[in-house]
Amino acid sequence: MFVVTMEIVILLILFFIIALVYSAAGFGGGSSYIAVLLLFGLAINDIRFTALLCNIAVVGGSVYNFHKAELLKWKELTPLIIFSIPMAYLGGRMTANPEIYFPVTGIALIVISVLMLKSKKQQIEKNQLTYLWMSLIGGSIGFLSGFIGMGGGVFLAPILYYFNWGAGIRISAATSLFILVNSFFGLAGQLGNIPQIDMQLTSVLLLAVIFGGQIGNRLNIHFLSGNLIKTITGILIGVVGIRILIPYLQL
Q1: Residues whose CB falls within 8 Å of the CB of residue 151, separated by 6 or more in sequence, listed in order
Q2: What is the pLDDT of residue 206?
């Protein structure tokens, strides 16, 4: 019998808010799902598996909405997606060692925060990335995201902003598609070592992020500019990264 405790209620509220905020900026929320679940004491492989499932639930709906709104540049995104697939799968197959996983996650989140806060506000579309660079970016971020258990969108978006790849809403659409693909294949890479997750808890968390994600994505498309949300998200990611790294800093 599934018992709803205060801890579960807090988790549901946090996951709903995370999905809403991140999807409004074109993300799935994987980095924050990981941070919250780490603080609640779940096992590492459970965290990676659950975070990827939640990413898929959020960005799957976002990609559908972006496609309907004709905001996805399928041709330009092809090299990015193709080269990310095998690398996300390879990263997902790697077993995470706590002494590696936690420091890598913390450092990655801090780097993400800095990149997001330094990325420029987009005024016009001026794609400065060739197919070769898009392929290299896709493969590199795919591997890292598969290993850590994220969709990789928070790595990708700052790069696209930096190179002025497109308008903010198109970067959100590209980021959502990238997260969906990498989350799916990162999850596939874990299927040989599926953790013993609590499916009842996971199911209610998925419902929370689906509702939050749809609200946030519709705000993204129809009402909001993602710049302020991107800045706030960058700050929060940096704080979480530092919090994770604190036990490993011998001060």
Answers
A1: 27, 28, 30, 52, 55, 59, 145, 178, 179, 180, 182, 183, 186
A2: 93
* Other residues' Cβ atoms within 10 Å of the Cβ of residue 15: 27
Instruction: Give the mean pLDDT of 210-226.
Output: 84
Q: What is the pLDDT of residue 251?
A: 47
Note the pLDDT of residue 2: 60
**b/e map 26-64, b = 16+ CB within 10 Å:** bbbbbbbbbbbbbeeebebbbbbbbbbbbbbbbbbbbbe
Residues 54, 3: Cα–Cα separation, whole Å: 21
Token pair, residue 14, equals 């946090």
Q: By C-alpha distance, which of 199, 184, 196 is closest to 91?
A: 184
Q: What is the pLDDT at residue 220?
A: 82
- Going from the C-alpha of 121 to that of each of 148, 151, 153, 163, the distances in angstroms are 28, 23, 17, 11
Does residue 135 have a pLDDT over 70?
Answer: yes
